[in-house]
Amino acid sequence: MKIVSAEFKSSASSFDDCPTGDLPEIAFVGRSNVGKSSLLNMLVNRKSLAKTSKSPGRTQLINFFLINGSLYFVDLPGYGFAKVPESVKKRWKNMIESYLKYRDQLCGIIMLVDVRHSPSELDQQMYDWLCYYNLPVAVAATKTDKLSKNQIIKQLTQIKKVLDLQTRHFLVPVSSKTKAGREELLKIIKNWVKK
User: Fold this and answer.
1) Which residues contact 32 (CB under 8 A, 6 or more apart)?
2) Class (C level, CATH) for 6-194
């Protein structure tokens, strides 16, 4: 899949605010600061299409990016961010769950985990939830540039084990810095959209 154009289209503060129409959508989900915006920028070959931040909790809305005029990349708020009030956490949770559960245009989910750490309890819950609703998932293990090849292999084995990764789901080691995993993810996305 070749990306020739990418533009920010809109933000939604609730499920009802999501764009109308029937373009296919690929959602990016993961805990706060795992690198969703960076991965999105890497996939579209742009430095700052999606706003990145050192401080977690930057993405607070559902952000829609139009790709090649024919599909959306959807950046969801990160989960597990401690420094927001409980009411905000609850609102984000409801917003993310409603989107993932009821959005007809959704054709695939890229779930991000940090390759340097074992998946958290929230990562496990998210993955179990996606499996329960039988959604198409690829797990992107981010920040591989920070580890050696041997460490990456060890960590990928750990991620598979902790998540109890289903054989039908892909596990792709990625790095926004080196662009590792870019072609593989784009191929997965292309196949989801074709279906």
Assistant:
1) 56, 57, 78, 79, 80, 81
2) alpha beta
